[in-house]
Amino acid sequence: NLSTADYQRIDAAHHLHPFTDFKALNAERSRVMTRGDGVWIWDTDGNRYLDGMAGLWCTQIGHGRREIADAVHRQMLELEFYNTFFKTTHPRAAELAEVLAELTPEGLNHVFFTGSGSEANDTVFRMVRRYWTLAGKPDKQIIIGRRYGYHGSTVAAAAMGGMAGMHEQAGMVPGVHHITPPYWFDFGGDMSPDEFGIWAARELERAIDELGEGNVAAFIAEPIQGAGGVLIPPETYWPEIRRICAEREILLVVDEVICGFGRTGNWFGSDTYGLKPDLMPIAKGLSSGYLPIGGVMVSDRVCEYLIGDGGEFFHGFTYSGHPASCAAALANLRIMREEKVVERAASEAAPYLQAKWLAFADHPLVGEARMKGLVGALELVPRKPSRRDRFAPVGDVGTIARDISFNNGLVMRAVRDALIISPPLVITREEIDELARRVEKTLDDTHAELKK
Ligand code: PLP
């Protein structure tokens, strides 16, 4: 066992972290996390943090559940790895596929396993185009995504997402188009949230008309945009999108990588918003993050062609349906079902946290507080009540607040100048009280810091 400083030194010398300014990281040193239990995590110096981000939007059942370690251990001793290519499978992959067909919304009865959410979305990219080719409409190639959407870091996933920085650094894949997200706080102008919800949904209709329905293959969207800033759509948004998808011949891809497995108050964001996805990428909460695994749920409609006479689908990953990851996911889903994790989070933790969270709107630094299920955001603003004033440059105050929060023992994330929360679904009332105290202190400390 090395000292904290030793770990920081070797880490800084050799480890390039995701989504990180390497130079800034080297100047600051990382926190070295060693242990987790429930909603808590500890660093090498024994500091304890409330994990308000559930790992990275994934640890639904909390950290440190022995049952998952035991299930993975058993699987590792039995069959640590075998592939699922061609005509082989193994018990855990088959069992997990059946459980997922049961749990996910009606009509999604097939799964293509991947190692991550990004791989799931690159799979979507291929499947969508393959579907239309097999359906005899090969011109339908364009995928419509949204600004601030996040579908992963692999090339096609990043292109379908709407993160400008990723497009600038990697270049764009042809055949992808982006529309305005249902982000009333930033883009709503003088419209009411409901008016804006309709307007933003009709962006899809306008895009289809402009690009030509015969060229548009699919619309991809998260039920609530997570990494884009927890953009909870106005109530009018999804019904209007549903209407457009019903009238137009395009596939609906609902990215449930964050919203899936209980985050929004139901098993899936699609349940919360009444959506019928043609394709549904999943990851994160599928295994509560205990081991990497993702997948694409595929509807009967799409399978009608995929399982047709079209021949081989040239796509897959060594770790598609990895036995140990499948064992972790099965154990996680068993715990979630037996302990009614989703139902209890929706009826107990979510309303309790929401009441406290929405009250932060009264803080002088908060321009808007929003939350659905157990995912929320606080928009930090320099002046109230105007929604239009923003800190400049965008993002600095969010980062300051996030760092202050970490020092106050609460992990939150900053997206631009919004603070984000997405705690484990098993968080208790006492832990929510503690979380709220730490949020309040973070807001007060940040406010004081800005006045210096
Ligand atoms: N889709 C969404 C909605 C996500 O939030 C993420 C990751 O945060 C991904 C896809 C990519 O998942 P992964 O990081 O497992 O590749």
TrEMBL record:
GO molecular function: pyridoxal phosphate binding; transaminase activity
Presence of the UniProt keyword DNA damage in the record: no
GO CC entries: cytosol
Gene3D superfamilies tied to this protein: Aspartate Aminotransferase, domain 1, Type I PLP-dependent aspartate aminotransferase-like (Major domain)
Transmembrane segments: none
CDD domains referenced in this protein's UniProt entry, alphabetically: OAT_like
Matching PROSITE patterns: AA_TRANSFER_CLASS_3 (PS00600)
InterPro entries assigned to the protein according to its UniProt record, in alphabetical order: Aminotrans_3, Aminotrans_3_PPA_site, PyrdxlP-dep_Trfase, PyrdxlP-dep_Trfase_major, PyrdxlP-dep_Trfase_small
Protein keywords: Aminotransferase, Pyridoxal phosphate, Transferase
Top-level taxon: Bacteria
Cofactor(s) the protein requires to work: pyridoxal 5'-phosphate
Family: Belongs to the class-III pyridoxal-phosphate-dependent aminotransferase family.
Listed name of the protein: Putrescine aminotransferase
Species whose genome carries this gene: Tepidamorphus gemmatus
